[in-house]
Predict the 3D structure of the following.
Amino acid sequence: MNNSVTNTARLLGAGLRALLVLTLVTGVVYPLVVTGIAQGLFPGRANGSEVKADGRVVGSSLIGQQGYGSEYFQPRPANGLGANSLNTHYRLILSGATNLAGDSEKLVQSVDEAKAKIVKDNSVPGYTVRPSDVPADAVTSSGSGLDPDISPQYADLQVHRVAARNGLSVTRVEKLVDDHTTGRTLGFIGEPRVNVLELNIALKDLTADK
Amino acid sequence: MSPVLAGVLQLLALIGALALVHIPLGTYMARVYSSKKHLRVEKWIYKAIGADPDAEMTWPAYLRGVLAFSVVGVLFLYLLQRLQGILPGSMGFSSVNPAQSFNTAVSFVTNTNWQSYYGEQTMGHVVQTAGLAVQNFVSASVGIAVAVALVRGFARSRTGELGNFWSDLVRGTLRILVPIAAVAAVILVACGAIQNFSGIHEVGQFMGGSQQWNGGAVASQEAIKELGTNGGGYFNANSAHPFENPTPLTNILEIFLILVIPFSLTRTFGVMVGSVKQGYAILATMFTIWLAFVSLMMWTEFAHHGPAFQAAGGAMEGKEVRFGVGGSSIFAVSTTLTSTGAVDSFHSSFTGLGGGITLLGMMLGEIAPGGVGSGLYGMLIMAVIAVFLAGLMVGRTPEYLGKKIGAREMKLAAAYILITPALALVFTAASMALPTPPHSMLNSGAHGFSEVLYAFTSASNNNGSAFAGLNANTDWFNTMTGLAMLLGRFLPMVFVLALAGSLAGQRPVPVSAGTLRTEKPLFTGLLVGAILIITGLTYFPALALGPLAEGLA
């Protein structure tokens, strides 16, 4: 009996020492080395791909923002986004999805409402948006709630409104969207997309120059 | 180019990359676990542990090593979370409550990485980097070690010896996981994943005001999260978060990392048992199931049945624009057919059948290709069962790789395939029968049931993904999923190691005219059939109440 207790204690001791040594290797040395390389080679990206406009940081090109004024391009809905309930001395964004199922009445309703609003907001004199023109990404929330992108179709649909609100020509705004459309990587990886923050920064520059 | 074609081309590129890498990596891993030489740094580590790396272990000794290391791992990670409030470098985050600390500690040590917490508001730098990320490495290494012990059981004869656990643990970590993860982490940063130790980051917003983000060693953790088929996200949104998975290219890279070791281990197996053809038969079985699942998933997600998706014109709820439906479908299948559970899109918002495919992937026991190590040993157990079924048909004592599959071997294999479904179904039934647990469901009806079934299937199979609408941060779910994860990880390991010991002690049976040729396509077909039938019979009633009811409604 005594013997087996000693043996167990010895074994757990070996386990603990193994854990501590491997923590040193994989939990201290490894992340520090990777951080060193990352900060040396790609400091901008390693620190969050911040974007500046007018000399001021206005966000990260990778993190979608909400609350753009109606003269700007609008992002995807983000109904799954939350605010932190723990450690409330910070104001953190909680990334996340709605997790609603395809047969959820709540989801059907939010899709229908989003679609109706997009049709109404983006129909300007001389240009009427049909409900069938609205792409799926415009009326659904992303997985992270932080999707920085919209589809080129959703950007195109907003061109007439944005042009009208900013007193710009439609062709000028169309060109702006084209310039900020990223195609598939190597022609087949991922989907074509438009980064909303970068597009709106360029739009703001354009209206300032006018 | 249509999104469907682009999705198919991404799939083909991924298959091409895996085909290129699995032979050299598999052969290299076989060498890692067979070599007599120790690196200098490894010798230091063995000295620190106080273990002789050349001492051969019988199966009970090997198991004791696995259990001792894992018990210590759970306690350490539990304490780290409980003490977070007073640990420096934790950004002032408070300690995690006991039930959630227990759940998380078990979750990461068992390679499950089920998360009942929101990473960005709960875990500071120290817990993430020195606690969670460490278990991402070592739980993966433990999994591979157990698989290698089983392979040695097949390869060796007339000995009870299965190798040395400490040596397998250290070599797997140092020679396989760390180097690949380091390269992958740097690529992830180059594409935009963050890697820093700054505190909470306050930055301005376009329309004025500011937002706050966490800094952190995200890329280094992301790399091993996928490579070790762990799946626990730094952030709540997991691999959908742009700081974890910034571009379409990193998405494909992450899927590649999830699959590369499980598929390559079939080569390791082939080399170690002295017949690479036997490895190909196992590989073909895994690949067939994986490809069929990916194809089905793409079909149902592009077809987007379901009232909300019909109204929206596509199944984009819970999916990111940059990955699209194609990239999200490949990821979802790869993460649930392995024990990963990372998500780049949210399975609860997949079509009814798509959600069912992710569930079924886990129910197969995560063997196609499965988690690192656990996939291979799970598949070899199924191979033993398939051989037994074939033996029954011809009335002959079955044998596999020159070893007799007798009563003891079959009892162990049967216990292995029964334990996980028993855990998943009993815990699900208990949760539905009790008055309070169903309050955690977000959706109602069939989908609500699927949320609970998914949670316990995921926990028992050590997957870690979720139909995340379920509020799992209750005492019931924290405790019960914790138990399901513990039992679902270590009981199967007991049976696997006992089987390995029993096989290693046998003398080899010479191949004769009556031997089933397990390296032939016929056997692959038999194996695929056995897997589907056994899983189908076990889970069909539960599936009918959940995803089938929803998908066919």
Q: What stands out?
A: The two ends of chain A are 88 Å apart (CA to CA). Chain A has seven helices and seven strands.
